[in-house]
What does this fold into?
Amino acid sequence: MNSDSDLQIAGDILEVLHLLQPEREHPSTVADFTRLARTIAADRPRWEHLVRYDATTRWYHRLSTGPGHEVWLLSWLPGQTTGLHHHGPSSGVLTVLDGTLTERNAAGGPSGSARRVLEPGAQRVFAPQHLHEIVNDSLEPAVSLHVYFPGLTEMPMHTSAPAAVAVARADA
It folds into this structure.
């Protein structure tokens, strides 16, 4: 019977400097941007005092920018929606901070649609050209954080929904 532990055999992995990844100065992967969004979401004093609500439209505020990305804070009153859109060449991470939001898209393919209810802490990662709509279907206000990489340069709106998105709207 061998009683040697991995630590006894290999030594402390943290002492083997050449095996450690250098810490990145700026986020550069989807995981990095997701982590950035979680970090900002957890730092409520950083963003909570900035939130405003506008009865006529969604309110938004650019919270920060960095090399290759930007972070936006949005508020949503009941019934407010983005409309059907995509983010051009930008990928993104959406994090719900307060309230509940619903995402509708055609990811279900020709046979159906995808409808996701996103509660506080929920995150959605999306690729460039991802066609979707975000709406506050609840009776309470909501707040969300959006990280776009590269920074948001366009947000083309679509007036006609693919059949799958239209079905998701009807099912809501």
About this structure: Helices lie at 6-10, 30-42, 44-47, 163-171. The chain is about 20% helix and 30% strand. The CA atoms of residues 58 and 76 lie 5 Å apart. The chain has a mean pLDDT of 81.
